[in-house]
Amino acid sequence: MADVLDHRELPPIFCPLEHAINPGWREVERRAVTWIERIGLCADSRERAWVVGTNSADFYARFAPGAEEDRLLAAALWVYWGFAFDDARCDTGHYSDRPGEFVPMAARIQRALERPVPSGGDDAYARALQDIAARFRAVGTPVQFQRFVAAHRAWLSGVAWQIANRARGHMPGLDDYLTMRLHSAGGEPTFAMLEIADGAEVPAAEMDSPAVRALTEMAILVAALDNDRHSLPKELGRGHTDQNVFTVLAAHDGCTLAEAVRTAVGLRDRVLLRFLRLREQVRARLSAPGRRYVDGLAHGIRGNAEWGLRVPRYISRGARPGDTDTSPITWAESPLDDSREPIPLPSVVWWWDV
Q1: For residues 259 and 265, what is the distance between their CA atoms, to the nearest angstrom?
Q2: 244-271: per-residue pLDDT in tens?
Q3: Distance between CA 326 and CA 228 in Å, rounded?
Q4: Domain positions in the chain
Q5: Is the keyword Protease assigned to this protein (predicted)?
């Protein structure tokens, strides 16, 4: 894409949700960095710097502001692990355009999560994931853990779709892209950890209800589209823009990048408004764990937006991550698109019917 866009040209994010962060996040970060060094996850100092520079403890502390330290640590470790795995084997690296090799590798990684015993054939990522899984089993219930396992499998399937598109130079249409992004962004396992971090198991009749499923999917998509926004300037600078919501819209609508940005932000804002309205309708009739879960979805939307505007992962341009941006965030006062009409795409239109 020929257009060049500075991050200051992107519209501010609309997010009328309250800021919250777990007060123990710095101690969790300290313990997580010690774990990263002990577990042998990173191949060299540069890779370690980028993994630590994801600020994953800060990230998940915004999703679970009331979590106990050991529970928050377990979730934060998976986030650090997920970013390391994504950078090395999904977005870049040997497997990033080889779906025939990615799929069996990812299946072995998934199996390392599922089985409660290690294997002599486990690589560094599988061994680290085994350690995280043991922590989840220790602090979570079997139901919570199996929900996370299923969400993890869905994430890897979405990444496989993304890699298959890259391998054949295929730009998906918007509906296919949103379906893929609901999985490939990693939002499913990230939000599935809310129960483990908070310690409250949501009854199946609530978690699997259409309304709560819709709220979960909307939270995932809003965060995923925000991440597309966060990463866009860096991807443009590196010429790495094969699939994001902006390039999808520009390719299929024949519009400029600036026009695609406005369309994408408007779509994202409509989904967020639907999330806010449905959450208000549903929350009062949920159990205490159910209310805590949907509140966690809201914390995650806000926290992901805050984190993404400041984290070195997105704002650093050098070979190594720089400092975290601590300047005040300017938020949009109103949505770019406040329509209550359903978005007419098969993958998401049902969110307006529950």
Answers
A1: 10
A2: 999 999 999 999 999 999 999 999 999 9
A3: 21
A4: 10-352
A5: no
pTM comes to: 0.96
Q: Tokens 């679970």 map to which residue?
A: 64
Superfamily of domain 10-352: Farnesyl Diphosphate Synthase (1.10.600.10)
